[in-house]
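Whiteboard transcription, Tuesday session. T.W. wrote the structure tokens on the left side:
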């Protein structure tokens, strides 16, 4: 089992005792909480710990935690002994609706986020909204950004539901959250089933992420992923309006919904424009000269592979 220092004190002992009770040999590997654990050093240490524990080809890796733990543990599972099975037990809303579903695993590089990784599908994903009761409020908001993104990119009816229910979406609203999570996961899983390796349709799920990932890299990952994606959604939608692709009313609906969720809608002050533009230049989604964007055509419909003039892009981060 792989977990982090925050989740370990809440759930790891309980899970280990449950495994012990049914006679399953297990070992626990704990990594520091935070994005910094998606590093080559932590990955190498985790691989070493797995090998020292006697991991075999028929062993199972359990990723118990948020997106960082899932990405790190999944990448280790994909590469140790040329690949072993793993399951995801996501404990954050962000991981439940996004990173635990789809098989993308990996670690960061100084040049940018998720630049080292693989596609390695989990054998099983266990999503329980009750985990969210112990989630800090700011991390709960992080997850809401990905929920809004999925709805904006793929499903106008789901987006309308979120507009109606936003004031009631709290960590303790288990029934509502179960409904929202189920819809978000169903939408993402359907896309992944049609395009596992992100050669076409799945790229629509990168809405808000081109600028979002650049903001994370420019702040040395000090900016939370959901916050960066929220700002990216607004910034990229503003680009879509400027390019004549998106109606202003849809742009305003998106901005209002993110605000209702307590998410930022503007690039925070103090972020160096040069660092953001440099991060855009090495984004893993690039296939040619300059960044490629996913832009909204309207709520529920997105366009992939859109390239824009440099002055338009540079104006967003100045």
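and on the right, the sequence the group agreed on:
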């Amino acid at each position: 089992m792989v977990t982090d220092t925050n989740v370990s004190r809440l759930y790891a002992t309980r899970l280990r005792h449950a495994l012990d009770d049914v006679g399953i040999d297990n070992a626990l590997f704990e990594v520091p909480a935070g994005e910094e654990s998606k590093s080559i050093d932590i990955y190498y240490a985790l691989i070493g710990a797995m090998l020292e524990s006697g991991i075999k080809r028929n062993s199972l890796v359990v990723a118990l935690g948020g997106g960082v733990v899932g990405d790190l543990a999944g990448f280790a599972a994909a590469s140790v002994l040329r690949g072993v099975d793993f399951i995801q037990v996501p404990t954050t809303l962000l991981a439940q609706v996004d990173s635990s579903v789809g098989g993308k695993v990996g670690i960061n590089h100084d040049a940018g986020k998720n630049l080292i990784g693989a596609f390695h599908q989990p054998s099983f994903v266990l999503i329980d909204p009750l985990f969210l009761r112990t989630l800090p409020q700011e991390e709960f908001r992080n997850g809401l950004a990905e929920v809004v993104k999925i709805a904006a990119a793929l499903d106008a009816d789901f987006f309308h539901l979120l507009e109606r229910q936003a004031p009631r979406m709290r960590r303790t609203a288990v029934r509502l959250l179960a409904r929202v999570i189920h819809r978000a996961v169903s939408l993402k899983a359907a896309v992944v089933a049609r395009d596992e390796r992100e050669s076409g349709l799945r790229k629509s799920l990168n809405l808000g992420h081109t600028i979002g990932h650049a903001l994370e890299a420019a702040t040395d990952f000090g900016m939370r992923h959901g916050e960066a994606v929220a700002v990216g959604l607004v910034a990229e939608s503003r680009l879509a309006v400027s390019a004549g692709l998106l109606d202003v009313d849809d742009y305003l609906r998106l901005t209002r919904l993110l605000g209702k969720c307590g998410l930022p809608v503007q690039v925070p002050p103090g972020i160096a424009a040069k660092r953001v533009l440099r991060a855009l230049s090495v984004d893993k989604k690039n296939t040619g000269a300059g960044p490629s964007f996913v832009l909204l055509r309207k709520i529920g419909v997105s366009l992939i592979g859109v390239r824009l003039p440099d002055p338009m892009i540079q104006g967003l981060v100045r």
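Someone added at the bottom: Residues 2-127 form a domain with the Rossmann fold fold (CATH 3.40.50.1970).
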